[in-house]
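W.,

You were right to be curious about this one. When I first looked at the sequence I had no strong expectations either way, so I just let the prediction run and decided to look at it fresh. Below is the sequence, 401 residues in total, followed by the output.
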Amino acid sequence: MERIIKAAVDRGASDLHIKAGDTFRARIHGKLVPLTKQALTPEQTRTIALHLMSNEDDKARLDKLMDYDCSWSSPGIGRFRVNIMKQRGTFMIVMRVIPFDVPTFDTLRLPHSLERVAQAERGMVLVTGVTGSGKSSTMAAMVNYINQHENRHILTLENPIEFLHTDIQSAITQREIGSDVPDFKMGLRAALRQDPDVVMIGEMRDAETIDTAMKAAETGHLLISTLHTPDAQSTILRIMAMFPPEEQEVVRIRLSETLHSVVSQRLLPRADGNGRAVAAEILIVTPAVRDMIADGKRIGEIRDYIADGRDQYGMQTFDQHLSDLVQSGEVTFDTAMSAATNPSDFELKMNMFRRVSTTVTASASTAAEMTAPSIIPDSQNSAPGGFDGIQQGGAFDFLNK
């Protein structure tokens, strides 16, 4: 089993799927591919589940468990976040690969405006996106940035602990749900009595946790957490929808006062086929955005405000970042359009950009031809590497490739 897992990691797998009645499968560059030919038996899958569990009490009640989260590591292979579940009466295991090295904004190729987000003194910073969009890595990069540049106490609540941080400029306390604290709610309540400057919660799953998180932000803490929402605007609407109708107006006012920023992510296959690129939408909550949230009826204006605030505040919409990724050649136009918030509008803007670029390039070429000096014929230039040599072995060959 460990040889198969190592082979998957060496091929760049992000997740492994182990299921009774099926082969080992791995998600490599976003695609789920088989690694073996022989299907696993229910007993084999059960044995693997026991091997991945470290708590002896949990092992003893394995057959009664329906969902179980833990972490597993092995020297020379890696660290993994593990979910063990029951399906059709047998076990299935999903393992998420966790790199040993704590990521940075640069290694993740995230916008530099996130450095300013990580420097916030207080408020809620929410990282959102679908499952597998890299939210945990982005949060770890934020914690890493604070750890390298600030003298703070950072307290994390995770299920399970993923990236292992070491104390640099800050002191970091990492608590695991189930072994260090019973659940997120109790851990977050206790955190407010443990003198934190920054609190990181693995996930906000219910109204009670969100309410406590807002209280933490209201009392002067910086709180970082995740939500499963597709973009910044829907994040605000989703938070309000988690509360009863009679409480939503108060929640909206509190949210307008405590929310600092929203970072929404989507992972897209790279144009060269090597890995995936992150597209990010970034909302920085300015006084104007606070008014839009507090009003309630103006939340629909937020997306346009993000687009207009790119230069001044470092904000950006998904479509703006997708346009950058296409222009830099990181993702193809078709991939970007399928991920765009408004595909038809995105296509129109990209076509306009192409027309403008073509016109500018043609004008520049014409001007160059009118002002270019006459070229000495190759027969009169015997020096090696002359114009003819460059034409045949340099730029022209590169363009053809």
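Here's what jumped out at me. The radius of gyration is 26 Å. And, maybe more interesting for your project: The chain has 18 helices and 13 strands.

Coffee later to discuss?

I.
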